[in-house]
Amino acid sequence: MQWTLVIPLKPLERAKSRLSDTAGDGLRPGLALAFAQDTVAAALASPAVGDVAVVTDDPLAARELAALGARIVPDEPQGGLNAALAYGAAVVRASHPETPLATLNADLPALRPHELTRVLNAAAEFPRAFLPDATGIGTTLLAIRAGQELHPAFGMDSRSGHRASGAVELTLTGVDSVRQDVDTGEDLRAALALGVGPRTATVTAQLLGPVPGH
User: Fold this and answer.
1) Does any domain span residue 214?
2) Measured distance CA(112)–CA(79) in Å, rounded
């Protein structure tokens, strides 16, 4: 089974505001772009992924992510994360109604293709399923099989929201790279400990010095 992933990305200038204690205004847009590039590149390297659709209105991000092989979907609703995801899913389904879909956060710079494959294979067993983030509060992936509606519930305590909506919580171990999104400096250090992709490593070196292993 091959999945289409829908990845939302807000305009880079407004992205990652909670990293202000670690990265200044001049570096945060580049860091957000690097996260997205490493996320998309790793996702496309998974044999379980057939297509990646990025929902964004940022022209630089659109150009750079398209160059990696992503399909770019303009964020026509401009109504926030859940609206962007629902719209992206509808666009994909309009041309490929039978494809299984999964949303994936754009800030997974340590993402490993084989770990993502494990998560998607596990999600395929259920009509709707989700993976909680490393904090156990949020969600990094929400998956639906053909014929199901997405019903995204991202935001405050999305783990509880998705569980309450009837989605099955995936309890896999050994998939830390799919759970480690980056919102804070502490998150970034955790991702660095796992091992981030090359673009994030390059930008992070401007903040913290060379990243081990790069």
Assistant:
1) no
2) 30
3-state secondary structure of 89: helix
Distances (CA, A) of 159 to 26, 122, 155, 163, 168: 32, 17, 9, 6, 10
Q: Using one digit for the tens of pLDDT, what is the confidence trace for 125-146? A: 999 999 999 999 999 999 999 9
CA 189 – CA 93 distance, rounded (Å) = 37
Query: What's the pTM?
Result: 0.94
175-191 as b/e: b if 16+ CB within 10 A: bbbbbbbbbebebbebb
Which one-letter amino acid corresponds to residue 100? Answer: P
CB 123 within 8 A of CB 167: no
**CATH assignment at residue 171:** 3.90.550.10
Query: Which own/partner pairs from 73-80 qualify as long-range (CB within 8 Å, at least 24 positions apart)?
Result: 73/6, 75/8
The C-alpha atoms of residue 113 and residue 93 are separated, in whole angstroms, by 24
Q: Which residue do the tokens 């957000």 mark?
A: 32
Domains identified in the chain, total number = 1
